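Worked problem 6 (solution included).
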Amino acid sequence: MWDEKLKIYDDLVAMCPRFIRKGKTVPSTTANGRMFSMLNKAGEIGIRFSKEVQKKYMEAYNTTFYTSYNSVMHGYILVTDEMLKDQQNVVSLLDESFDYVMSLEPK
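Solution. The predicted structure is:
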């Protein structure tokens, strides 16, 4: 299962030419010194947004906060299996998340 989700995650990130996937044990994307997406050990994908956008997407996609290594990642939403049925939309969400972290002060 995890290997299948890793392939999906890699395929999604590969459709985004502005950034690349990093990490061996924790696959993720970073920009401006900040992580903005990741794949946890349970094979779940999380994407980071501002609090306002996060709330909007949690309602629109009927999802929750993302959890990784038993910690709730309050800046991230969980990408559900239902959301993954529309990969182009998830690519758009990744691009939007990239834009969000690029708007923040660099770390």
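Discussion: The first strand starts at residue 28 and ends at 31.
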